[in-house]
Amino acid sequence: MERRTFMRATLVGTGAAAFTGTLWQRAALAAPAQNAPSPYGALQAADANGIQLPPGFTSQVVARSGQTVTGTSYTWHSAPDGGACFADGTGWIYVSNAEVSASSGGGASMIRFNSSGAVTGASRILSGTDRNCAGGKTPWNTWLSCEETDTGRVWETYPFGGTAVARPAMGRFNHEAAAADPVRRVIYLTEDKSDGCFYRFVPTTWGDLSSGTLQVLRAGTATSGTFTWANVPDPDGSPTATRNQVSGVKRFNGGEGCHYAGDTVWFTTKGDNRVWQVNLAAGTYELAYDDSLVSPGSPPLTGVDNITGASSGDLYVAEDGGNMEICMITPDDKISVFLRITGQSSSEIAGPAFNPAGNRLYFSSQRGTSGSSSNGITYCVTGPFRT
């Protein structure tokens, strides 16, 4: 399949899209991604935190569920899930969801760091919600926290201060992740159902999610082709679920993470261990990764879940189960293991997000060493990431 040259970029700053990626020419026959040695080198022995990393990288524990965040009086939430980083002028903020019921502390929290990466504060930014799984960052520096229930809502939260607000116009369904596209001025949304759909929300006014149009992707049954968008008649999803209101929709098996950069949106499906690539300018979609099509050897990435990207164009995909790894897919469609958490086989990795400088990667082990949501661990890995 002929590939196009494009720029991958990340959303940074306080309301503008900063295109900081590097131009890459996708290999003509490389997609879906194939096995290759890591550009960082082989994993080393597990460190004191039980994490195997490439040479030159180090890990630290940032927070533990049920324990006070070091340097603050705030107790970290259970089952840390989706996350994102926000620049705050001098340092940054890391936001993390809590994938538990409202009665068990569902919602989202934040940790603030100074320019050297030391914790300076932590607090709750959303409470009383259910199974806040993943979500997404907006260009105007809010966090969209998504409820993973059949009547789940998107909550717009304010890491810099403010009261969280439900955004029902974005649809009520089994929400998973969100990704903002500042070019088309839309928000992409995944649905965690075995017969789920891929959506976009078109706000009436960009920067205001209180009203707009929910649309669903329509396409054939193949793993590549062209697509169109169709309006969802009833975003409330009752009595007919949003995924069943429009004919000709494309079904995706368990939508998970979502990431936008440079006229492309990637999203993952855990039911079939795939990473999908939607080429927005061309109006086409295809597979960026499929564990059944990897060679040579065994597929490194299974339990496909949250996804994020670096300014280099590298994609980082976390595993829900698998070998408890974060794998990376390079712009030339090569896949390798970036890190592995040992001794936590009953957990999942969630919430990968880079700080604004791109030299720290935050993520969580949702259930830690015990396999219980009350024992989640949030980490930071520092090192010479590619830029």
UniProtKB/TrEMBL annotation:
<dbReference type="Pfam" id="PF05787">
    <property type="entry name" value="PhoX"/>
</dbReference>
<protein>
    <submittedName>
        <fullName>Alkaline phosphatase PhoX</fullName>
    </submittedName>
</protein>
<dbReference type="InterPro" id="IPR011042">
    <property type="entry name" value="6-blade_b-propeller_TolB-like"/>
</dbReference>
<dbReference type="InterPro" id="IPR006311">
    <property type="entry name" value="TAT_signal"/>
</dbReference>
<dbReference type="InterPro" id="IPR008557">
    <property type="entry name" value="PhoX"/>
</dbReference>
